[in-house]
Amino acid sequence: MIYDIKNETMKREDMENLQLEKFKKILHYVYKNVPYYKNKYDLAGFHPSMVKTLNDIKKVPFTEKSDLRDAYPYGLLAVPTSQLKRIHASSGTSGKPTVVCYTENDMEVWTECCARVCVAAGLTSDDIVQVSFGYGLFTGALGMHQGASRVGAAIIPASSGNTERQAMLLKDLKATALVSTPSYALHIAEIARKLGYDIKKDFNLKLGLFGSEASSEEMHIEIAKQLNLFTTDNYGLSEVIGPGVSGECRKKKGMHINEDHFYPELINSDTLEPVKSGEVGELVLTTLTKNAMPVIRYRTKDICKLDYSPCECGRTTVRMSKILGRSDDMLIIRGVNVFPSQIESVIMDIPEIGSQYEIIVTRENNMDRLEVRVEVADASLLTDYKKLMDLSNKVKHNLRVVLQIDAHVKLVEPLSLKRFEGKANRVTDLRKKS
Amino acid sequence: MKVKQIAVFLENRKGRLCDFAKILHEANINIKGMYIADTTDYGILRVITNDNDKAMKVLKENGFNTTVTELIGFKVADKPGEMHKVLKLLNDSNVDISYLYSYSELGSNQAAILIKVEDNDFVSKLLLSNNVEPFIEN
User: Fold this and answer.
1) A278 reaches B (C-beta below 8 A)
2) What total number of domains does chain A contain?
3) CATH second-level architecture of B2-69?
4) Regarding beta strands A408-412 and A367-376, do their DSSP bridges make them parallel or antiparallel, or are they unpaired?
């Protein structure tokens, strides 16, 4: 099944013409409506009229996460706040979150794109979908919720956490599809087995729509085996729209990008030049149709490949490979973006601990575990254990406020953490490369 | 009756306690009493030495985090019921003990008991007025 035959099976030439027209339009739109973009382009000596062909797009200055941070909260808005219908946020690189806004048009684009992803994965109006992403500011849950709803499926908004109940609901409500992170799917399977469920007999799952963290093919095979379902991968990021940027079809040969809405490019992260056809590069996305907060040439920092050949499924939209890595130091922990700089900002604000820290990420029982090691600097806390426990709880609490996830805080001796003379490498990711 | 104790933050990893002892050894400092509880990641090592100032100095030089705490020290005879007598006295006076440890010198018929309480002056007076023998070190 294809949700939008016209836009998903367009000839390459037609798609390119459409993209060029939309690209030119959105450039003029942001230049006129967003002073932040105008100033930036003026400073760079760029003007929207300089783009005449798709090849000219490489002249357009990039947008980065730091732009969204500098413009916090509404500096990149192209419309008055009275026109907004939804506001989401994701974690920023330091204390403040990255805010993203949607007009009614944007909500429609978003819902439509998520519906395409759902249909490509094989979802139908007969399905019962359990959404086990955390509902809230995070775009993942509501985005996929809206998409599946548009397709006509029944939604169980289970949210994340309380995994025993997740497993019980899957079983009792006979859910046929699961939306979650791939690692959480494995965790649910494990808990279900612990509860004594026979997944093959007790569960009715047929389809998994997994996203919000990179996952390997091997991991998908494992999930398929454990939950006895067909797995699909999808991709999105809140700065661009949330989920709905791309998703796998039943052929599972890459994630189809909704490129009539999101224009993809691959660049070399060092030279910032486009990579040669077929080469691996950093994905750069431009929103062609969003009104509230368009992003132009947004550097996702996600590394992947693009395949422009038509797919066996009938779609002609470009397919992106699974995410092969990151060009920055962002970690994705339990589906949440974590920047070491966020952790650093918390550490620096607590005088009882030193300014050095180490971040260790591991996977235990299919769940990511974040450990932050800090040095005890204030000797007056050594009079009793309670003071030390209060300190580690304070660090944990402050990390939670900024990161939205729990970290294990380990207090260590002063001067025991590694010191760096050159570029600091404070992060150890011991999870199996996925 | 008041005894100075050094508290040292010690990570729970192999060899760390030995490192600590080596530093005091090399500085020719005698450890009179020492106490550490089992915990997961770290512990507070509590130690009484014959030269606390010097011990603090060499430990700091070697990167250890230390602080001084004042404890109450008293002696009890090495026979049944002696400990109970003192603890009952403290309990009847509503004194809270945050922690306690003891050590006995070889060949002595008394044990030295060290307790951490809130109000050292009150507890010293209480014990002395009830004829509990003070323990005085360093």
Assistant:
1) no
2) 2
3) 2-Layer Sandwich (3.30)
4) parallel
